[in-house]
Design a protein that fits this description.
The chain is an alpha+beta fold. It folds into two domains: 344 residues, Beta-Lactamase; 150 residues, Alpha-Beta Plaits, CATH 3.30.70.270. The protein has 14 helices and 18 strands. Strand 13 and strand 14 form a beta hairpin. 34% of the residues are buried. GO terms for molecular function: catalytic activity. InterPro entries: DGC-Regulatory_Protein, GGDEF_dom, Nucleotide_cyclase, Rev_trsase/Diguanyl_cyclase.
Amino acid sequence: MTISFEADSNVRRNSRLILGASIVLAIIFVINAVISGYLLRRNTMEDRADQLATLTLILAEHTSQIIFSANTVLKSIDDVVVVAKIDNEKSYREFASNKKQFELLEEKTKSNPILDVTTFVGDDGKVLNFSRSYPAPEINLADRDYFIYLKDHNSPDTFYSVPVRNKGNGKWMFYLARRVNGKHNEFLGLILVGVSVEVFSTLYERIGENLGNGSSITLYRGDKTLLTRWPFADDLIGKVNTNTLIEQSLAEGENSNGVIFTDSTGFTRQNTAPVPRVISYRRVTDFPFIVGAVVPETLYLSKWYKNGSGGLVASALSILVLFIGTYFLLTTYRRNAENEYHAHHDVLTKLPNRTLFSDRLSNAIAACKRNQEALAILFIDLDNLKTINDIHGHTAGDLVLTEVSARMRQCLRDSDTVARIGGDEFVVLLPGVGTEETAVMLAEKIRTALILPIDLGGSAITTSASIGVALYPAHGLNDADLMNSADVAMYEAKSSGRNAIKVYGKDLVANIFRDIS
């Protein structure tokens, strides 16, 4: 591709337009991918939030049923005590230590899989009877929170303890406890129902395993003491969750679904980097418990990652195809433009050739007819190109032609056209020239520019030109007549001694000679 073709303003402008349009389309693809990805991510998060909110609602109801069933067992044992009409501490101990009561406790424990043990406790904290064996071993529960609280508070309500390791088997339990009173409401002891933390965790596992690896389900007492969780974490049971995420979720639940997205440090990751996650907590109906579920970002956005990566690949492929298509379009366009350029321009001087000049002359004549204007053409023939070629070689002759072409372009207006139509012949189109005097002035300007020495690698070469002038409509009404008139005038100039200007139809308009030396 030639330098002058590369510099063609129309080709460059159109190439920029094509490339710019492709870039705009690529940007649109990128923006569309970003917006689609954002909307997909937001919708995925909203869907996951709704699913998690529904899950915690189910968990809260499920937990409420489990605790209700355990509390029902506790109340049924309490009803047996009430029916026995126990008046004092002695009669209570006799009643509670009886083997018949062991069988009662054993039966009640077996009736509910969530229960690990049921127990009668004396006013000194001593275990009087429990469902594991008879007689009961020497165990004292006076240091437990439920014993301390109910001994000092004459409350008929069930007390829900913090989780502790059972003194009988060492497993984690939390207890439902009720106070036993004497005839005068004096404290006689307790009835306990022990709920297995690990069994509770197993129940949550059946629900939570569908959430995926990294998820968790937790059960807290109302004061945020961890009662149980899935996956089971022995080192966390009984500890208090001190962060504010539970409160935030519960507060959100008052207005919406209680789901929050966070990346703050969690209860189970105190010493590790926080993980972005979605959490939801709910209060358990009728009981002082809070149930919650946590799903990490890698899980709740897994569908988005999959679909988003597919969309990203599709967008990338679309952009790739777009730019490949643009490349081939530009290549084809520039090749066609180059071929068209070479078909209408002189290879050496890059000036329009005879074909392009004829087209421009025809258009200019048509415009002059419409606008009632005049135009002129200058037929220019170099006087000594053959001599230069013979003496200095054709390479020097080519350099002279290139320099002559450049000088002529500098003498003309942007609206004018100079073309090379033969070896040493040039023609200039001057649309809207106005008068014959103006055309002659421009011809003289060109003639003067061409007689200046041309430097060819240290050697100065001089040339000159014979110029014939013809005007529309005076010297021809069509392009053929005008070209013929200008050609005749040029031959008149050359015949009169060269380095001259002749106007068609006059003996002499301008006949200026200069010494070439």
